[in-house]
Design goal:
about 120 residues; mainly alpha; 2 domains
């Protein structure tokens, strides 16, 4: 949906470029709707085009809304980090086990260096 807001030309010139003004108007509208409880955080994020919750959190904080994460959001983030950490460690172990590299070095060379 497109929304048109009439602004007198002399004011529009002072308020900034059309693209910038459109973005600011959308942000102000979306923020007001969020504060009124008519938009959820995921809806606000989608409306404003933020790709992550962290971007949305930064936007809210910059606009004086410093809400903490819900316990559910915190738990989801913790689980995501644990999965990512586990995948990284597993990949490193597989590389080491197959004798490929360990931090760019051959494990056999590291062992020989340690024996000298």
């Amino acid at each position: 949906m497109d929304l048109t807001v009439p602004i007198p030309d002399e004011l529009a010139a002072r308020l900034g470029a059309a693209d910038e003004l459109s973005r600011r108007a959308l942000q102000a509208f979306a923020l007001a709707e969020y504060q009124a409880g008519r938009l959820t955080r995921p809806e606000l994020r989608r409306l404003l085009g933020f790709s992550t919750r962290y971007e949305l959190g930064g936007f809210l904080k910059a606009n004086g809304i410093n809400e903490g994460m819900t316990p559910e959001e915190f738990e989801r983030d913790r689980e995501s980090l644990e999965r990512a950490k586990g995948k990284t460690l597993a990949a490193e172990f597989r590389e080491f086990r197959h004798g490929r590299t360990l931090g760019g070095l051959d494990p056999k060379e590291l062992i020989r260096e340690g024996l000298r």
